[in-house]
Amino acid sequence: MNKLLSAGAVALTLIGGGAWYMTQGAGTAPGAQIALPGAASAQEAGEVDTSSIVEMTLGAEDAPVEVIEYASYTCPHCANFHTSVFKDLKENYIDTGKVKFTYREVYFDKYGMWASLIARCGGEEKFFGITDMVYKGQQDWARGGSDEAIAESLRKIGRLAGLGSEELNACLTDSTKLRSLVAWYQENATRDDISSTPSFIIDGTKHSNMNYADFSALLDERLGE
Predict the structure, then answer these.
(1) CA 49 to CA 51: how far, in whole Å?
(2) What is the CATH number of the domain that holds 167?
(3) Is the pLDDT of residue 32 over 50?
(4) Residue 41 is assigned to a structural domain of this protein
(5) Which residues, listed in sequence order, are joined to residue 68 by a DSSP beta bridge?
(6) What pLDDT score was predicted for residue 60?
């Protein structure tokens, strides 16, 4: 499993030490670029107000069991979980009102952050659908080579989800959201002692990656079934 960067290293990588560059979408001059803002220092990242960040959840608010997943869009183990385990977990526990499920992003690199910005661009309504598309296509977009190719692959996923090019570029250049997400990640990972992905907080207790059989058995035990 990929190991998390330290809070300071993440801040420096994602929002410090200069700008990120992503190519503009269709309709602009060839080679035109937009900068993902990155003026804040690592120290400033810890002072950002994170109250605007929306928790992405599925299931009944009053479900008897709460599951929080910490995952990175560039983590192969996370992609495997979402393409092999999550469907059954959703069908048998989330959709049936037994589990409230929350997804929280963690960041290993700028590509995971870009994917996060794309997933959140459509709001709560589209978040999990885009997340599913990002994970299913991870082997393609994450190995795109250049920043330009990876950025365009992620924008393509956003367009397939019904988002417009202008909307996507606005999301990718939202400096306020960028800083807030990094600070939010740091707060969450520190509080819940997250050291690798995927990790799961089930009713307050941390667990490492599991197959469906083990996950189901653990949930059934919590549910008294």
Answers:
(1) 6
(2) 3.40.30.10
(3) no
(4) no
(5) 102, 201
(6) 97
